[in-house]
Amino acid sequence: MTGGHHHHEDPPHAADDPLTGLCAVVDTPSPFAPTSAPRTPEAALALLARGNHLWAWPLGTLLCSATPEALAAVLPRLGPDGPWTLAAYLLRHRPTPRPPYAHLLGLRDPHALRVLSEESRWLDEESVPRLLDLADPTSDLAVLRTTGDAHVSRRIVGRPGALAARLAAELRADPSAAVPGGTHWLESAEPDLIELVFARSGKHLTLPQQLVGCLNLLRHGGRVRLASLVAGGKLGAAATRLCGTALATDDPHAPLAARAVKELAPARLVKRLRRAKGEHDTRHILDSTPGVPPWEVLEAEHRREPIPHWDRIVRHPAAPHAFRLRQAAHLPALSLRAVPLGPELTVARARHGVGGRFREPVDTLLDQLLRTGQLTGRDLVHEAAPAAVVLAYLGRARRRADAPAEVRTALRAASAVVRHALGDDAGAWQHVYARLTEQTTDPGPVGPVASLSDGC
C-alpha cells in the first residue's frame, strides 16, 4: 500500500504458468472448508441451522456405529458435553443411526434433546416419532416450530398437556407470529389456540377447516365463544352464515356437524385428488383436509380409475401398514440411504424389484438387507425379484468370505429349487435360460428365483 492507495497485483498470465494462474483464481476461503467442532449446544445449533456438518470428530464416527453396550461404556467418560455433541454429530447421518439415537433418548439429557428437537429436520422420518414418544413438552414445541410434516404436527397438537397453554401465552405476546402447528389446532380440544388460528388466518381457511374449528370451539369453549368468533368477522361468508343459523337453534352442534360430514365426504376428497396439479398438491390436499384420510375408499377408487400421483398417497406418513403392504409396488425403491421399511414391507417391495438404483451397488444393498434382518435367505430366493439380479448376487457372494450368513441359507434354498424343479430335464433348463436372458415374452425375468421353473 502506497500513497493511501491499494495496490492490486495482476493475475499470473496463463502463458507463464497455467496451473498457478488457475489456482490463484480459486484459492479463496470456501464456505465448505472444515469447521471447528462446536464447544456449546448453542454453537452446535448454529452450525446445524446452516447445514454445516463439516466439523470433524473421529470418536463420533465410531460412536455412530457402536453397539448399545459400547455407548453405555464410553459416553459417560466424555462428561456433560458428550450427549449433546453426539446428538449434533449423528444428525449428519441418514438414515439416523439407531443405537446411538436410542441411547440419547434413554438418557433424556436436556441439552441433547434440545439439539435433536430444534434441528429435527435432519432426523429421518422414522426417528421423529421416537422423539415424540418421550412426551416432553419442550421438545414437542421445538419440533412443532420447525416441522413441515403434517402427520407429526397432528400428533403433537392432539396430545393434552402444558404445551397448548404455553404456546397460547407466547402467541398473545407476539400478535404477528405464525401459529406453530397451524390449522391442525382447529382439530384440537384447545379453544384458545383455535381462536388464535382463526384470528390470524380465518378467512384464508377452507370451509371444511372452518367448520371443524367452529365445532371444536363449540365443544370445548361453549356457545358464547363461538358467537364471539362469528361476531368478530374472522370467518368466511359461508361459515358465518352456517354458524349464525346453528346458533339460533337449541342444538347448534347438530347442523354444524351435519354440514361438516357433507363437506368431508370421501367422494369430495377423491374429486380434489383427481384434480391435483402435481405430487406436492396431492400431499397438500391430504395434509390440509381435517381428519383421517379414508384409505380403503381411496384404494377402491384407485382400482376403479387410477388416481394421479398415487405413489405420493401410498408414501404418506399416515398411511396404515396394511394399506402400504397392499400397495407395496408404489413404495420407494429399496436403498442404502432409505429408512428401513421393516421385514414385512421390505419383502413386499422386493417382489417388485431390487437393485438398479444409480450409484448403489446391488451387492452392498443386498448385504445390508440380509445383515439387518430386513430380508432372509429364503426371502431372497422365493420373494425377491428379478431372478437374474438375485442369482448374479449369489454367484458373487458365495465366493466372498465376508458375505452375510444368510447367503448360505439362500444358496441352499436356490439349490433346492434347482434340484426339485429342474433336475436333469434339458428342456426345463433351456426354458429357464431363455427366461433369465429375456429371450421369451413371458414375465418370468421379473419374478423371483423360485418362479423360474413355472411353465416348464
Structure description:
- With 456 residues, this protein is mainly α.
- The protein is built from 27 helices and no strands.
- Mean pLDDT is 88; it is low at 1-9, 11-15 and 22-26.
Poorly predicted regions are: 1-9, 11-15, 22-26
Topology order in helix (H) and strand (E) letters:
HHHHHHHHHHHHHHHHHHHHHHHHHHH
Please state the structural category. mainly alpha
Average pLDDT number: 88
How many helices does DSSP assign?
27
Q: Into which percent range does the helicity of residues fall?
A: 55-70%
Strand runs, count: 0
Q: Which descriptor suits the 3D outline?
A: flat
Largest sheet properties: none
User: In percent terms, what proportion of residues is strand?
Assistant: under 5%
Q: How many angstroms separate the termini? A: 88 Å
Based on CA atoms alone, the radius of gyration comes out at 29 Å
What's a concise summary of this model?
The chain has 456 residues and is mostly helical.
